[in-house]
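Q&A log
Question type: sequence-to-structure
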Amino acid sequence: MIERLFTRIANWVAHLAGMPPTFAICVLIIVAWALSGPIFGFSDTWQLVINTGTTIVTFLMVFLIQNTQNRDSAAIQTKLDELIRVSRAHNTFIGIEHLTESEVEEIRDKCEKAAKRHDREVAEAAVKKAVAGKHGSTKKKQPERSVSGS
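Response status: OK
Response body:
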């Protein structure tokens, strides 16, 4: 129950934090604070108010946003794993998010090299097809040229 409540609050706060009106309100708070500086003589207390407020908000937002991102990341990873599982892709890719960064980088490099090899093979096949089509069409068009040339 507490986890579900926290999740709802985290989602709600993360949603609100990303909205333009929230940004506008924050800008207004900073402007009001800056304009009040002369009234308070730019005192240490005046500075402490904004420093404390921003520190508390930042501290709490880090945990709420991290929670939201962790859940989103896990949900996306689960969806990708399911797509891999039901497709012709390699099931060995399921769970690679648990590997070290260097292990994932090694897999990524291998995938990029395989993709480049595949692209080269596709390009070579296209060239062969185009050349074969050109030779085939030249043979068919020769009689037409002789007829139109006379």
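Response note: Residues 72 and 124 are 41 Å apart (CA to CA).
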